[in-house]
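Fill in residues.
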């Protein structure tokens, strides 16, 4: 059995017919090469998906920059109009 933390090290066969032996640490890929293949495939798929997300994000960068500049412009316009309204209202009260 591999040395996964989830395995109970005190496990034994109650009938005494099976002997359970644990692998030495860090040798799973040697004794269980299928695990190594699955891990390698999973890493490859993960890297491919992550790279695809980076490409999509980079392609949307210009669109997001335009949107951000529009939001900043509208905020500036709102802030300017708000300041003008405050000054106008101050002038009315006198």
């Amino acid at each position: 059995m591999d040395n996964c933390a989830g395995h109970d090290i005190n496990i034994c066969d109650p009938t005494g017919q099976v002997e359970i032996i644990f692998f030495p640490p860090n040798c799973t890929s040697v004794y269980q090469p299928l695990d190594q293949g699955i891990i390698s495939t999973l890493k490859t798929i993960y890297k491919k998906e992550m790279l695809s997300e980076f490409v999509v994000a980079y392609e949307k960068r210009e669109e997001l920059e335009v949107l951000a500049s529009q939001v900043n412009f509208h905020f500036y316009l709102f802030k300017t109009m708000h300041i003008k309204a405050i000054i106008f209202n101050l002038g009315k009260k006198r």
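The mean pLDDT is 76.
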